[in-house]
Write a structure and sequence with these properties.
Layout (H helix, E strand, L loop, with lengths): L6 E5 L4 H15 L6 E5 L2 H4 L15 H16 L4 H13 L8 H10 L5 H6 L2 H18 L6 E4 L2 E4 L10 H16 L14
Parallel strand pairs: 1-2
Antiparallel strand pairs: 1-3, 3-4
Helix pairs in contact: 1-4, 1-8, 3-4, 4-5
């Protein structure tokens, strides 16, 4: 049995490929995988800011798009035992139910559905949480050249990964999938591995 190194993985709840990858990670952890995982929120909105426009952190109009990640960050750091439930529920609300996570009422419903109270939403509005989100995003860009989600980071190596399928209840497959990805990233001889065509 190989040892899976510690890894980080970025997310933005808008991305269906982030949902796929994170469901694999969640399923693996719930099945007992002994991974040391850091979940890193990342703003796709910031990556598409028009030239000359303010960054999303300073743009009040962008505030609602940041709120789901801010809520998740509060729970990740303050109530980590409930993070996986919330993380999975936020992805499900967006991609399974088609709900608008920019709506505070929708967010409150999701938060409450996993046994958290509305205090999480209030905490997410604190300036220090926004500053933390900004630093996490900017350090991912600066230190690892992250440009999207999900990006897996192992040591100094970072790779943008797209998994085609969700685990669909198969925790063994989830563990295999994540460990395959992480082991490839950690393999020092592998420089590039890219499909010449997109497999459906």
């Amino acid at each position: 049995m190989t040892h899976t190194p510690a890894f980080a993985v970025t997310y933005d709840y808008r991305c269906p490929f982030a949902r796929n990858a994170h469901e694999h990670v969640i399923a693996g952890l719930r099945a007992g995988a002994s991974w040391d995982v850091t979940f890193v929120p990342f703003s796709l909105g910031q990556m598409h800011v028009a030239e000359g426009a303010p960054p999303v952190w300073e743009d009040p109009a962008a505030g609602p798009t940041l709120l789901p990640a801010l809520v998740s960050l509060v729970v990740r750091d303050q109530q980590p035992e409930q993070f996986l439930d919330l993380h999975e529920a936020l992805f499900a609300a967006r991609h399974d139910d088609g709900r608008d996570l920019r709506d505070p009422a929708v967010l409150a419903t999701v938060v409450n559905s996993v046994g958290l109270d509305d205090e999480v939403l209030h905490a997410a509005g604190e300036p220090k949480v926004l500053a933390q989100f900004r630093e996490l995003h900017e350090s991912a860009e600066r230190d690892h050249r992250v440009f999207g989600v999900p990006t897996f980071v192992v040591g100094d190596a970072a790779v943008f990964v797209r998994l085609q399928h969700r685990p669909n209840g198969d925790s063994d497959e989830a563990i295999r999938s994540v460990e395959r990805v992480v082991e490839l990233i950690a393999w020092p001889d592998l420089n590039e591995f890219k499909w010449t065509t997109i497999r459906r």
